[in-house]
Amino acid sequence: MEIQVQKIVDMVPAEQIRTITLTKTPAEIKKDGLAAALGELLDNFEASVAANEMTQANLDIATEVPVAFRLETNVINLPLADSNKLYQFFDLDATAAVNVYLIVESEDINVSHLRIDEIAPVDTFLSDQDQVRAQIIQAAQEKWDFLQTVEHPTPEEKAAAEKAEAAKQAAAKPAPKRRTTTRKSPAKKTTARKKAPAKKAATRSTTAAKKAPAKKTTTRSTTAAKKTPAKKTTTAKKTPAARTRAKKTTED
């Protein structure tokens, strides 16, 4: 059986995949066995695959931690729900052979909570049903037996374990240093006032102190004090008699 890859991509969102679901309780599985529940599922799956339908058949077991066994047809070990990722592995226009895959979903199965095993091509599944059915039941039983060995703590134990783990991590983790962001107050701009230029002391220009110019004292020019010009004395001309008298006087 082959199919164009693009067709699968289109069929899943359009819900054109044939889906079969069977739900069982842990008590029913314990009473009838897992093989009986899987046999019922396989009967429906085989009929759908024989009709050339892309098929998904689910066996859901409602245990404390739910478990789902799922049979799917696909071209790669990828859940049909993730068919939009097929372009990463194929040319979407390409045609690929269809295989049968057993998928187990459970929180306890592994870290990814998902296990996918390729069982056989669809053509082999249809041509050798007994052998392939036995292979599917054996693989599923192994997974189921493993899941029964996983112990689950009670809610009280789980809460105590989580609390202890949190305390352990808190003790191992150094307390974060408290970052004290001290805001530096911006330095005040001290606008130094320019000192007013020192006032020039108005110094009167003096040799010690500038003397006011001395007042000119108008001194009258005197040798000590300017003598008034002597009055001309007009001597009267002596008469001849007077000259004779004077001469006489001189001789005496």
TrEMBL record:
Superkingdom of source: Bacteria
Biased composition (Basic residues): 175-202
UniProt feature, compositional bias: Low complexity: 219-243
Region (Disordered) residue spans: 160-252
UniProt protein name: Uncharacterized protein
